[in-house]
Amino acid sequence: xxxxxxxxMSDFAFKESSVRSHWLRKMIYPSSSTYAWExxxxxxxxxxxxxxxxxxxxxxFYNYNSLTLILVGSYDKCPAAIFDALDALDDEIAxxxxxxxxxxPLLPQRRKGKSRENHTFASEKVDTGTMAFAWEGxxxxxxxxxxxxxxxxxxxxxxxxSPLCKRFTNRPVPIAGNIKFNIMPYFPAIxxxxxxxxxxxxxxxxxxxxxxATSCRHSTTTPExxxxxxxxxxxxxxxxxxxxxxxxxxxxxxxxxxVSTLMYIVDRWLPNNWxxxxxxxxxxxxxxxxxxPRNAMADKECDxxxxxxxxxxxxxxxxxxxxxxxxxxxxxxxxLFSVRQQLTQKGYSFWQSLIQKWLLDQxxxxxxLHPDAKIGITAEAERILIQQYRIENMSLxxxxxxxxxxxxxxxxxxxxxxxxxxxxxxxxPDISKVQLPVFSGHNxxxxxxxxxxxxxxxxxxxxxxxxxxxxFQISLPLAGLASDLRPxxxxxxxxxxxxxxxxxxxxxxxxxxxxxxxPVVEPVGMPLVYLNSDQVDRACGSVLNTYDxxxxxxxxxxYPGDWPDEALTLYGSMKSDDLNHSFALLVIKLLFGDFxxxxxxxxxxxxxxxxxxxxxxxxxxxxxxxAWLRVPGPLDARAIADPAYNSDGxxxxxxxxxxxxxVNHYFQTPFLSGxxxxxxxxxxxxxxxxxxxxxxxxxVERIRAHLVNxxxxxxxxxxxxxxxxxxSEARKAVDNIASIWSFYTGAWLDSLPHTPAPSSxxxxxxxxxxxxxxxxxxxxxxxxEPVDVANLASSQILAKPYGCKDYVPxxxxxxxxxxxxxxxxxxxxxxxxxxxxxxxxxxxxVSIEKQLLTLPDRDVYALLIFTTMLNRSGGxxxxxIRGRGYAYGVGVHPRIDEGFFAVYISHAVEPIKSLYALxxxxxxxxxxxxxxxxxxxxxxxxxxxxxxxxxxTDLSEMLELDDARSLFLGYxxxxxxxxxxxxxxxxxxxEDIRRVFVKYLLPLVxxxxxxxxxxxxxxxxxxxxxxxxxxxxxxxxxxxxxxSVNLSALDxxxxx
Length: 1056
What we know:
Elements: H1 3-12, H2 16-28, H3 43-46, H4 51-61, H5 79-85, H6 90-95, E1 116-122, E2 128-136, H7 143-158, H8 163-168, E3 178-184, E4 190-199, H9 203-207, H10 229-232, H11 253-298, H12 303-318, H13 336-344, H14 348-360, E5 365-372, H15 375-392, H16 396-411, H17 419-424, E6 440-444, E7 456-463, E8 470-477, H18 489-494, E9 502-505, H19 509-515, E10 528-531, H20 533-543, E11 544-551, E12 567-574, H21 579-592, H22 597-616, H23 620-630, H24 637-641, H25 649-652, E13 655-656, H26 659-662, H27 668-684, H28 689-709, E14 715-721, H29 727-750, E15 814-820, E16 826-833, H30 848-853, H31 858-871, H32 876-881, E17 887-895, E18 900-908, H33 911-925, H34 928-934, H35 937-953, H36 955-968, H37 974-987, H38 990-1001, E19 1013-1019, H39 1026-1033, E20 1042-1044, E21 1050-1051
Parallel strand pairs: 1-5, 7-14, 13-21, 15-19, 15-20
Antiparallel strand pairs: 2-4, 2-5, 3-4, 6-7, 8-12, 8-14, 9-10, 11-12, 16-18, 16-19, 17-18
Helix pairs in contact: 7-11, 7-13, 11-13, 11-14, 20-21, 21-29, 22-27, 27-28, 31-35, 31-37, 31-38, 36-37
């Protein structure tokens, strides 16, 4: 019955974060509290539910009397009219169950059970675990204490110099990978402190020879007792505390370290370092206050305000101190900034008492989590066996009744909103009343003799009144980069965030001191200046609010087609006056950072952890595997479709994958695993480790050399200011960026004969020279006067994303089935090739304004609008699949940049039925009568407005990114691109929607089907023989021959 929820929770139940939260709540709250139970349900309980129980629960709680309606925003008519229209529901409200106001039970003074428990979670990586602690927190109505805790936690976790970071993570050999410290707004609150990536090995085996690579030496003698807080924590020796224990997850060891660290903070750190702590809190308060109007008031349809009000509405129902109120007291969190300002005025004694009362005097629970690589597979196998046992023990009548109830549930119509109430709701948003953020742009040609080394074809400056900070973003071309360096790019991009020192040639010491806040002191008689990581981090923190680097521009890498992957993007935010200093700092760190063995190891290990977490969430396998199958290689979709393909033969003769296909987001994990192991071995001086170490460091230097030499000069320098700037000032800002880059890249080249490859000043030197390749230089462009605002044609910068596709052609549909041990539920994906270019024709002599008159992208935007219709919660495809309980997640994605249209189905209970439901939907829409019933003017207008509204409301958060992307796509800026989009969307009609459906989607169910690519991924153990599953897949009416691929036969890092 609740099969979809079961499928979703099967993944959820084994994740480290889910297991940690579940058991901490179970240890803190009594069984009479709902917080002691999982809100989504655990798989073993979901399977026992009946339809009647679910319906009764829905009737009791999901009714009008339990509803709080929150309206935030501007309305053409008074919101009271909306409430008046709801009078039509009076009869239904009258018969609804009474409002449920049941306060959460108070926590017992003395808890039963153990104060420490041990549990397991699913993980591919089994050498590290998690240590977590929890305390009862303040009541929900104590807003001051809640906000004070948020401020304190922010400092302890996010400031690299805090005692908590220095004790556990920010040290030569960390004893934890990450710290998570939260106060959860439950009733009452719960304070959670967890340490992830805790190594199982004892400290000395974990440290190995790593201490020898740092200036911080550790004693090799084993202490006979644990040091007291006074002995352990000196003023600057926090990171030097020894951890000579046989197992870092040993009973009570971590608890002692947590308690002693908290005692040290109370007794010594706060009294001696209060100005530092207060300075951090002041800075964060100012930053949050400046960002709040943009993030909570303007973006995401005022979600920030809705969440603020919703917290008080929930407290009205559940908090012991609020359920006695006649109505909710809304906006208690509205005092956030005034309370923060008041709290920063309090002395350190207030913060001492806060820690003492809630963390030291309160009872603590302790949870140790151990990884288990097989727990997911074992649990799934047990669940399937239990399900089969139940079915086998049912009579024929019971089975028929169960099937009848399931069919009735899946066909149950959705609730209907009365027409009177629907008519009174705000109309479809009028997009003409939604204004673009106020900004102005300037385009420049930044090339000049003084900036010959700058790889920028366009300098773009935005003035965004009302913004809270200035920003820069440079995109450095990667065209021509050697293929063996591609796997190292993600690691290289994250080195900018690594805690690393600098090795700076003395020849540029004066310039560095002048252009940055780095404390450069030239040593007598030495060619190099070395700055440690603390000095570098302090300098970056003093001027930069945020900074990072990535391949492309979208930080999550979730949408690689939305940005050219042929660019390394470096960005930062800061005060306007600090722009040049900030940019110089990051360029210096990028070029002269001491990225040695230990830094590379930590960065690669952290990135591997991110990839493993993503794989645990099971989001990348479907999309990344489809991308891997579409790129040419020895085992691509075309090769699998070949009659000669034999999956069994791969076991005896493994296929060695080529670099471009193997190293994508999913298959990069084994590469990172191999890299961290080899670098870890290098720290211990084991075997062939020096060779592996040199290879990784060699890659870093070669990537630097590529960026420095500027093989292609078609990148982008993008700057934004929070105030209006004159054209001359904008030009000056671009020139400064280009000059800073040119100076330091020139210095890097000039210092090559003297500067060793960064690892430590004692390592041997490795030198690089890269000759410019004339064939890859930027195209000729129109010249402009240095001070003139130029309307530059953006064909001079990186090519459009869709211009670099290299997918295998398929003569007929291809179906592939994979079994993966890392997932607990099934996934289905379909990709249909698209041959659609979009945006202005850059080779045309016709201006962009005149091109727009002909609406050349009508099919593109008709397809995007049609997708919006299909993706809404009550859309046709979602109703056909999710509404019947076949799968939980259904998404339709027109990836025009990447050349395909896709349907992705996640957490599928019935993967084959999900696929058939997709085909049935295409058949349903084929006749004109069915089409007119489902696709009408109301649906079109709603989808059109939703599409445009999303484009407009998202801009205020990502204005600079969208403006830069507009240049990459061929426009002169964001203004022109938004005009292009709006004119096309306003012109789309029902005939356009029908045309793109017939042209691009209907071929899925025709005998002349396009070369679609189907992928079905299932867990390794499903209870059904693979031959039978394939037989069911291949019984389709469209002649699609599904084949099984043995992924374990591949060696994705053979040539890396």
